[in-house]
Amino acid sequence: MKLESFEIQNFRCISETKCFVSPRITVLAGKNESGKTTILNAVERLNGKIKFTDADRPSTPSNEKPTEIRFNFLLDEKEKELLLEQTEINPADIPNEINIKISNEIQGYDITGPSIDRLRKEILQSVENERKLINESIKSMKEIIAKGGSRLNLKEIEPTLESKTVIENSQQLASMQIALSQQPGVYAGISAPMIQEGINKIKPILEAYQRIESITNKIIKMIPNVVLFESFEEKLPSEVPYAEIIDTNTLNSKHKLVGDFLTLFEVDVQGLGKDDTRLRAKITSKANKISSDIFGTHWHQDPIEVEIGYDNPKVTFFIKDQGKDHPFKPEERSKGLQWYLAFFARLKAQGVKKNNLILVDEPALYLHSKAQEDVLNTLEELADDNQVIFTTHSPYLIDPNKLERVRLVKKDTETNYSKIENNINKGGDYETLTPIITAIGLDIVKGLSFAKKSNIVLEGISDYYYVQAMKLYLKEKEGYEFPDDVAFIPCVGQSKVGAVTSILIGYGLDYKIVLDKKGTIKNYNKLIKDGIDTNKIIRIGDNEDQSIEDLFSEEDLNKYQLKSDQQDSKTLISKKFYQTIEIGKDEGFSTETLQRFRSLFDSLKDGLTTTE
Questions:
Q1: What is the DSSP string of 189-217?
Q2: E strands within 104-220?
Q3: Coil, strand or helix: which one is 371?
Q4: DSSP class of residue 567?
Q5: What is the mean pLDDT of residues 279-296?
Q6: 103 with 213, same domain?
Q7: Whether residues 137 and 104 fall in one domain
């Protein structure tokens, strides 16, 4: 089952919030103390191993509702077929949605939703006639007993076939049958055939309940294994007594990280302790080969390998730089590398099991930017067979090309409750949005080239994405050609335009400047005062209150939802707009919009030094 969304109610610093989950990776981005870890703690409760306590409830809950977490899952076709075994129901007739609720008021899982509700309905309808018949029998027996001044505990069965009623009735009828065989007349007026008839009538009801129970148990087994990684502080030791490794309980309690490495490197622990030196050499050689392959692929800083050995009575671990002979003890390497080894082994060893819901709290805090990219690649690889949710405030763990999987976590300043914002285009303050905006800026930097003869200097990131998107659209859909050897350079606000332009002039490079008319008159006058030719500056708009967004018609502004008064939101909106054009999911543009952008590009390339 794939998790589609979850809702948290009255849990610690959260009153009520909902998060839509991406199929592969969901990023919870927010500043410190925003409530990101609390969200992971709530989701972890799905594993059923942690009980709710009074500490889980807010100190001053905003309502009287219970503490509960609700999960919405989607079944795949194979899972639906498994649930429908021994039924005649067509899988196509069953919805995919399953809802699972856990709460401080219930034991275990409360399973509902379109899928299970439809299955229950089908099963209940199939025994509705039998239910009415057994209720008639129960009513008759109770009336007979009542005339003698006694009572029966048999209860009429409700249409929903409550498990307690069905099972208790079945058990009581069986007990009555035994009692009557041992002491005839114990139930005055009720004969053995009457009881047998009741047993026969309740049997299909009991079987129907058992089918519902079987389907419920199958759903519970389909719930992903939830694994929370709050920290990776355990360090790989340089040696461990073999007796502690061979003892599974000791290994799991004292040396979890060692166990992860042994799993990851496919080490035959039993064989490692045998007297056969050739077998031991074969085991360690295989493990070291796997280690070299793994870390040569995933750790791109200075390729390493973890070397496993056996020095009776100890298992040893060393770290070597690939291609070098000198081994180091793990504790002799940097804290960042030690953290990454723990992170990688723990997640990869767990990920081998597949169908996990992997929760990671603030990964890669000790690592520099390039190493954080390795961490993100590891998480991407895990997401091939698992769903991953991780928290971060690092721009290097946010893929600017996959902003649809980012969720903002923020704390309401008035209520002090945390909340998840699923739409990053709204609701985020500057500090919360900073890592996302930075990630977008870093992505642009990767593609920038300052060595071209001709350059277009733009005010900011949103201008860059709008211009690039429309240039791409006009070329692919309208056949409009703009020289490829012209670089577009975004500044961080209009105040930086002069400094960037000075660098271009200093290197003898040709340029043009694009400014909004809105709010730029002072900077425009300063550029002219500093000697910039007015022919080099293109101001967008028909009046002093217009910007680049005004090149779009009102129709297109609404169609692509491009309106925003906040600069941070403009950056996110423009990035999303560019991605829409890049993957060809646009809905076309009005003639007015196309003419305005053509006119802008004509003005930009007019007089520029190009090779085309």
A1: T--HHHHHHHHHHHHHHHHHHHHHHHHHH
A2: 110-112
A3: helix
A4: H
A5: 85
A6: no
A7: no
Which CATH number belongs to the domain containing residue 474 in this structure? 3.40.50
Measured CA to CA, the distance from residue 495 to residue 545 in angstroms comes to 18
pLDDT digits (tens, 9 = 90+) for 66-119: 999 999 999 998 998 888 886 777 878 888 999 999 999 888 899 999 888 888
Tokens of 75: 């079944």
The tally of domains found in the chain comes to 4
Asked if 582 and 472 count as a contact pair (C-beta separation under 8 A), the reply is yes
- Sign, CA torsion 227/233/237/241: negative
Same domain, 167 and 314: no
pLDDT in tens, 200-240: 999 998 898 888 888 899 999 999 999 888 877 778 899 99
DSSP helix/strand/coil, 12 = coil
DSSP string, 247-290: SHHHHHHH-HHHHHHHHHTT--HHHHTSS-HHHHHHHHHHHHHH
Could you tell me if residue 281 is inside a domain? yes
**DSSP characters over 387-400:** EEEEEE--GGGS-G
Three-state DSSP state, 516 = strand
Q: What are phi and psi of 232, to 5 degrees?
A: -130, 55
Structure confidence at residue 24 as a pLDDT band (50, 70, 90): very high
CA distances (Å), origin 72, targets 34, 75, 118, 454: 24, 10, 16, 53
Domain containing 211: what range? Answer: 126-222
Task: List the one residue out of 255, 219, 263, 251 whose CA is nearest residue 353.
Answer: 263
- Which of 397, 342, 345, 400 shows the shortest CA–CA distance to 371? 397
Assigned domain for 371 exists: no
Q: At what angle do helices 369-382 and 277-298 cross, to 10 degrees?
A: 110
b (16+ CB within 10 A) / e for 138-153: beebbebbeeeeeebe
Q: 565 pLDDT exceeds 70?
A: no
CB 86 within 8 A of CB 211: yes
Q: Helix 114-126 crosses helix 192-222 at what angle (to 10 degrees)?
A: 160
Same domain, 193 and 267: no
263 exposure class (CB count in 10 Å sphere: 0-12, 13-18, 19+):
middle
